[in-house]
Structure to design on (218 residues):
């Protein structure tokens, strides 16, 4: 019964979000790549949403993944400490959601941390300054976007960063920071390998958040 109540809660939330965004179930299906029948069963509480479903829903609707996880009944450990800023709070929420998703997916055993992503970004920043790194970004970005087949804030921000990088809009430092994020997205083996089903691009979203935050401080 508990699972049914959780499913109904998620269904109510999805109905409200679709109504707010004037999205029909058919259009929602097209945007997420999830068939209409499956979405209908999830909304009506007849099927439990998987972590992959929730990731696509959150990306398409532009809502925190953790909100959908809680509505769907997945266990989320609440953080006790208060954050100093809204951006830090958003980051912590995202990390919490990722930890919960990794735990529920049973496909990734290592502990995820923002520090690991930051280390990778630093190394890719050096690579982004080389001709080989720049060439990789220009030649492989569009193809990687097509392979992901997603829309939403995460992908939209990446496209925005790619445009700035391609046009050379920014200081050397800014372009290095942007280049590191684009390479993080393009290269398949990062903190969470892209080939891992349902969870492979969660750390890429964190990388985009880190870069956006860094650029705002400049």
């Amino acid at each position: 019964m508990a699972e049914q109540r959780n499913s109904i809660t998620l269904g109510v939330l999805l109905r409200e979000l679709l109504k707010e965004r004037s999205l029909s179930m058919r259009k929602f299906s097209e945007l997420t790549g999830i068939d209409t029948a499956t979405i209908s069963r999830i909304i009506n509480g007849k099927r439990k949403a998987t972590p992959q479903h929730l990731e696509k829903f959150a990306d398409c609707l532009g809502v925190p993944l953790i909100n959908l996880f809680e509505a769907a009944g997945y266990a989320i450990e609440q953080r006790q400490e208060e954050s100093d800023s809204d951006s830090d709070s958003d980051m912590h929420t995202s990390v919490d959601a990722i930890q919960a998703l990794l735990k529920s997916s049973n496909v990734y055993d290592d502990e995820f941390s923002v520090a690991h992503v930051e280390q990778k970004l630093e190394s890719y920043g050096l690579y982004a300054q080389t001709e080989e790194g720049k060439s990789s970004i220009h030649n492989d970005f569009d193809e990687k976007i097509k392979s992901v087949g997603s829309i939403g804030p995460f992908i939209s921000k990446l496209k925005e960063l790619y445009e700035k990088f391609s046009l050379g809009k920014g200081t050397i430092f800014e372009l290095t920071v942007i280049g590191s994020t684009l390479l993080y997205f393009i290269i398949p083996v990062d903190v969470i390998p892209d080939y891992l089903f349902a969870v492979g691009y969660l750390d890429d979203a964190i990388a985009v958040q880190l870069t956006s935050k860094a650029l705002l401080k400049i």
User: Anything to note?
Assistant: Confidence is low (pLDDT under 50) at residues 1-7, 76-87. The first helix runs from residue 2 to 20. The chain has two domains: 2-105, 114-216. The chain is about 70% helix and 0% strand.
